[in-house]
């Protein structure tokens, strides 16, 4: 990247615990970076480098407005997709299609339309570092837990989407991270006993923390990962081999 060019980050799911922590890292390490931060209702950090973009990703009209707003902003060259509905544990017999649709709309449809808008423009850029990072889950390795078919299905779909894009766009990097269960507000709808049992059974004796994955995210978004694409990093702490 030339001295005249600065990174523009687009973060879908910026109001999540991971999104908030990543934004703080970016602001600390790069005083020139611009951050386009998508929030649903979360009150963002007020900072001159942050442009908040409010959008309920489950709403197609709202998503269309977001796409329109992105056209008036600097072109993002680093795109991070963290958005997902909160996970619940529910047996398949009790699921309704509407629940699946929410995960499809927020988890898959949103990034489909965002990348549809950005990638053709980004692909024409010659000198700038171009990276897309997905948040997946260690559940795409091995046996997933019971009662989370909505969440697991979309993570597998995103993995296939990522690999297909990496195959098609040669000069843009597409990678993902797959952490194990992380104790964040994303798990607020789970029974606390599930978190306790997960921690007890984990090889490290605890569930993951946001700080456990930030270094990997920075690596995949930084200069040291220039020869990586189509990869999904297993960050399960030894839970999945």
Q: Which stretches are poorly predicted, pLDDT < 50 over at least 5 residues?
A: none
What structural class do you assign from the helix and strand content? alpha/beta
What is the average of the pLDDT values? 91
- What is the chain-wise order of helices and strands? EHEEHEHEHEHHE
What is the number of beta strands? 7
The number of helices is 6
Task: Provide the spatial order of strands within the biggest beta sheet.
Answer: 3-2-1-4-5-6-7
How far from one another are the termini?
36 Å
**Helical percent range?**
25-40%
Strand content: 15-25%
Provide a concise account of the structure shown:
The protein is an alpha/beta fold.
What report would you give on this structure?
Strands 3-2-1-4-5-6-7 form a seven-stranded parallel beta sheet, sandwiched between helices. It has helices at residues 17-29, 60-70, 97-123, 149-168, 192-201, 211-221; strands at residues 8-12, 34-39, 50-54, 78-81, 131-135, 173-179, 231-235. The longest helix has 27 residues, at 97-123. The protein is globular, with a radius of gyration of 17 Å. The N and C termini lie far apart (36 Å). The protein contains six helices and seven strands; from the N terminus they run E-H-E-E-H-E-H-E-H-E-H-H-E.
